[in-house]
C-alpha cells in the first residue's frame, strides 16, 4: 500500500519559514518524480514545485520561484519543500504527489498539511 505523508505545516508570520516533509512508503521512491501542490480555500489546486527522480532537475511556479526550494533524500524515502519569505497568499493546504518517470499524471497523493501565513 502506497502512502505519502506530509508534515511540517503550521502557522507562521509573514516573512517566516517552514519546511514541509513528505515521507513515502510502499513504493520505490527513487523511481518516482515528486511534486508539491497547494489548494487555498475557494481556489483550485495549483502546482508549486517538482523534482525529478534523481534530483537532477527542478521546476517551480512563478509565484514561489526564489522563495521555495524542493529537494529529496532517496535514502530516506522523503521529499522536502523549504519555504522562505512566506506571504499570506501562500496560505493553503499543501500536498505532495509522486508519479512514475514516463507518466505525466501523478499516481499518488498525500493527505495534505495546512500552512497558514498571518500578516
Describe the structure.
The chain starts with a strand and ends with a strand. Strand 4 and strand 5 form a beta hairpin. The protein contains no helices and 11 strands. Strands 2, 4, 5, 6, 9, 10 and 11 form a 7-stranded mixed β-sheet that branches. The chain is mainly beta and 119 residues long. The relative contact order is 0.32. The chain is 0% helix and 53% strand.
Output the keywords.
seven-stranded mixed beta sheet; single chain; mainly beta; 11 strands; four-stranded antiparallel beta sheet; globular; about 120 residues
Q: What is the secondary structure topology, with strand pairs?
A:
Layout: E1 3-7, E2 10-13, E3 18-25, E4 32-39, E5 46-51, E6 58-60, E7 68-73, E8 78-83, E9 92-100, E10 108-109, E11 113-118
Parallel strand pairs: 2-11
Antiparallel strand pairs: 1-3, 3-8, 4-5, 4-9, 5-6, 7-8, 9-10, 9-11
Amino acid at each position: 500500500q502506497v502512502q505519502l505523508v506530509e508534515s511540517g505545516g503550521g502557522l507562521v508570520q509573514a516573512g517566516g519559514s517552514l519546511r514541509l516533509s513528505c515521507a513515502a512508503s510502499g513504493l520505490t521512491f527513487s523511481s518516482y518524480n515528486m511534486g508539491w501542490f497547494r489548494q487555498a480555500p475557494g481556489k483550485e489546486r495549483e502546482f508549486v514545485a517538482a523534482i525529478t527522480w534523481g534530483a537532477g532537475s527542478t521546476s517551480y511556479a512563478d509565484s514561489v520561484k526564489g522563495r521555495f526550494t524542493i529537494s529529496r533524500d532517496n535514502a530516506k524515502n522523503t521529499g522536502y519543500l523549504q519555504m522562505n519569505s512566506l506571504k499570506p497568499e501562500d496560505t493553503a493546504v499543501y500536498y505532495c504527489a509522486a508519479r512514475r518517470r514516463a507518466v505525466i499524471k501523478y499516481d499518488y497523493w498525500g493527505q495534505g498539511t495546512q500552512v497558514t501565513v498571518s500578516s
